[in-house]
Structure formats: structure tokens, C-alpha cells
Amino acid sequence: MQNFGKAPLLIIATAIVTIGLIYFADLLTPLALAIFLWLTIDGAAEVLHNRYKIVPRKLALPVIMIIVFIGLAVIIAFISNYARDFAHDLSSYRLRIDQVILQIYQTFPQLGAPPTIGQLFDKVNPARILSGLADTLKGFGGEALFVLIYVLSLIAAQASLPRKLVNIFPNLQERERVIAIAGAVRKSMEAYLWVQTVTGFMIAFACYILFLIVGLKNAMFWALLTFLLSYIPAVGGLVATILPALFALVQFTSFWPAVIILGVTQAIQFVVGNLILPRMTGDSLNLSVLMVFLSLAFWGKIWGAPGMFLSVPITVMMMIIMAQFPSTRAIAIMMSANGNPDVDLKSRKSGNKN
Fold first, then answer.
1. Which of 123, 79, 121 is nearest to 97 (CA)?
2. In this predicted structure, what is the pLDDT of residue 76?
3. CA–CA separation, 66 and 177 (whole Å)
4. What phi-psi label fits residue 286: left (phi over 0), alpha (psi between -120 and 50 degrees) or beta?
5. What are phi and psi of 43, to 5 degrees?
6. Which of 197, 71, 191 is nearest to 141 (CA)?
7. What is the average per-residue pLDDT within 30-53?
8. Would you give the distance in Å from CA 143 to the centre of its chain?
């Protein structure tokens, strides 16, 4: 009965937090990305220092940070330029798009009279959409300045964090428990990012070879897009297989290249997603499939693309934290994949010290 009495308070608190997440999205989204990047950069710097002892820890951190931000800038510039060029050259595809539409409506006569490309453009203008995509990516590039400032601030505050923890948690046992929980969250995020990066590269490389064999134009762009979409669970892989196939319909006079691209990319996604990814992930995330979809829908709804990218790490962090409190432990159990949301805090803590 006591837990049921707390249910209304929990619902009200959840509603208030959700409203706050939506209302302050412009402020919180760069901060959330900055925290994720900070943990990623700090973890990568630790790996670089441990593997190559000749590289000092203070030098490894700025080196990794420069590499990450240069890489992001190159990716954003590449996709923005391609989207604008594609929108500019779209007129050369108009005749082929008309032919594809006619073939589809001839195959399925129940659809009625086929519209022209001009009629479709009145409703959905690809040039405007692609130009909007380019502007969005440029906007993200501008927002990256705030992300960079947040990351630098977090790195600067990192040095004083141990002293702050001592003042906040004077009890040694309680302080070690908090450090262990934070270490578990960090390790889960690092594991997720590592797995998604490796498997995403595998998928993108295999798809790039396929695009070259088939003769798809701008194979590097489609492979890069496939790699980026791999960070979005479930939906990203589906979109990454459909978009190149749709472009193949426009480029080639036959349906077969599109069918081959769609079928083979789906097979690649299936093999990596069902055979390789589970072996690499293991129990490091321990998040149920239902929660993956729910978190993707929830965070994508309130924060857009950044929310979809951060949905799994944020949800795993929430599950680990809620498992430590009796009032929210039942929720954490329901969120977990195996019904046991607990993590080995002792091993996490010792892992952080190494």
C-alpha cells in the first residue's frame, strides 16, 4: 500500500520532468550531447594513455578531442555539400522519376492515374527538403560551438570533481557507492558507443562495396549516411536500406539494381544486427527490446534527431540509477532485458581506478 501511495507523486514528478525536457530542449540538447561527448572523449583518452604509456594523460585528452571535433566537422560539411549539390542537379532526374512513377502505376493500376513529377513536387519538393537538410546540418554545426564550450567546461570541472564528491558525501562507503554507480553508467555508454561504431563501420563498409559493384552513384555518401544512421536503433538501419534503393530506382532504367541493393543491405543489417552485435554487446546494456523502441520514440519526439541518437544511453543510465532505489527498482526491472538491472559495482569501481 505504501508503494501505491507514492505512485501519484511519481506520475506527477514524471510529468513535470517531461514538460521541463520539452520546454528547455534548446538548452538541454547541446548539454546532453556535450556530456555524452565528454564521457566518450575522456574514455578514449584513457584508453590511448593506457595503451601507449608514452602519451601523457593530459596530452591524450586534447588529442582525442581535436580528432572527434574535426571528424564531426568533416562529416557535416560533406553531407551538407552533397545535399545542396543533389538538390541543384535534381532537374536532371525529372524524366527518370516520371518513368518510375508511370511504371509503378502501370504495375498497380488500382492506384489510378499516375501523377506527374511536377504534381508531386507541388506536394513534396525534394529540392526544398534537401536544402532544408543542408541548412539543418549547418545549424547543427553552429550549435556545435555551444557543445564545444560545454565539453571544455566539463573537462575543466573534472579536476575538482573528487573534492566536490568528498564534500557532498563525507561518508566513505556512500561516496564509493556513488562513484561506482557513475562508473557503471560511464562504462555502459562507452560500451554502447564502441559497439555501434564498430558494427556501423562493418555495415557501411559492406554496403560501400555493394554500391560500387552495382554502380550506384555517390557510393561514399550513401555509405557514410549508412554509418551515421547506425547510431539510431532499429529505425536507422531501415532508413539506411531504403534510401539508396530509392535512389537506384532513379539512376537505373531497371528495377533490379534497386531490388538487389534493398535485399543485400537488409541481409547485411540482419547478419550484423542478429549475429555480431549481440556477441559484442553481451549484457553490457541489458535493455529490453521494447524499451529500445519506447526510448527511441520518446526521446526522438521531445529532442528530435539528437534525442534518437542519445535515446539508448540515456535510458540505460536511468535504468542503472533507478535500480539503486527501492521506490523505482521495480521500474528498472521492467526496463531490463533479463529482469536483473543490477550491475557489478565493485568491478566497475575497480575498473575506473585502473
1. 121
2. 74
3. 33
4. left
5. -65, -40
6. 71
7. 83
8. 17
Instruction: Give the span between the Cα atoms of 233 and 292, in whole angstroms.
Output: 7
Residue owning grid cell 532504367: 253
Cell numbers that stand for 122 in this block: 507541388
Cβ(249)–Cβ(258) under 8 Å?
yes
C-alpha cell at position 41: 572523449
Q: Going by C-beta distance under 8 Å and a sequence separation of 6 or more, which residues neighbour residue 324?
A: 177, 181
* Grid cell locating 268: 547485411
Predicted TM-score (pTM) of the model is 0.74
**What confidence tier does 353 reach under pLDDT thresholds 50, 70, 90?**
very low
CB 62 within 8 A of CB 116: no
d(CA 6, CA 13): 11
| Cell representation of residue 209 | 562495396
Using CA atoms, how far apart are residues 62 and 68, in angstroms rounded to an integer?
10
Q: For the range 48-53, what are the long-range contacts, defined as Cβ-Cβ under 8 Å and sequence gap of 24 or more?
A: 50/354
Lowest mean pLDDT among 2-6, 90-94, 153-157, 303-307: 2-6
